[in-house]
Amino acid sequence: MRRTLLVFLATFCLSVNYAQVMDKEKYLRTNDLDSLDGWKIGGLVSVNGSQVSLTNWNAGGQNSISMNGLTSLYANLTKGNSHWENSLDLGYGIQRQGSKDNVRWIKTDDKIDLDSKFGRKASKMWYYSALMNFNTQFTDGYNYPNDSVRISRFMAPGYLLLAAGMDFRPHKIFSAFIAPFTMKTTFVLDQDLANAGAFGVDGIDTTGSTVIPGKMVRFEAGGYIKLIYTHEIMENIKITSKLGLFSNYLHNPQNIDVNWETLVQFKVNKFISATLSTHLIYDDDIDIAVYDDSGVLTGRGPRLQFKEVLSVGFAYKFPAKKETEKVEKVKKEDNK
To answer: Are residues 126 and 204 in the same domain?
Structure first.
């Protein structure tokens, strides 16, 4: 009888422990690992370059050197019903062309983009959320091939966007942030560019007896939508796409500002990879100069802007925690 009781108790304990383990594993399979509390930190650092040297080359051409760097970092915190996402994207590229007597460096890429979004769970897929986005560039930009006319610089323009609304998160690879209350601030901290009315600010006013310098800041109030899609579409190929749409309630609300960025990462091995980035912008308040083939100005007005950068070279990707480490952590807690 005693032996039977001992066997029964041992079997019962093993059954309970097995059930707890199975329940925990079922939880891990049916729930997003990102939902576990704590920080998730990682990113990508990529440096690429190319060089062409020609000597008595009958087909023609120019010597050139190009370098391009890309850094994409993220730090996300989940704690209970709260979720805080932070990302920083930096990009810079230069290219040198010409012979010894006629060499020029031309900027090919330049961006600083900081994004922070905090959310508090309202239901299974909805969060009350607030977002802050800031972007500008590192160095001066010129109207190439004319490198004597500066058309942009650090904080000219600079954009700060503050928004409050709801964040729809049906899956870890997609989110849709909808903000009916949004403040967009445009900075042009260069008086010459501000006087010219660059990037939508009010330019210099000479209609009266007093000359009023151009304004360096422009405020807009409106609605904002931001869609984010991040997914490893197949092994070693990951895509991240961000689409921002803004409507100014106070001026031409039907003209939607579009800011769409996409980054595709192709991993060759641990240290070699390729990246393809695209950036599409349309802002009704930004006038773009249009020239004919002879360099004569033919018009000025809003235009679709598009940039594409393809790079192959050194890259290092670092996650803060692996999913297996999270699983092991949960299992260790279960065994305590």
So the answer is: yes
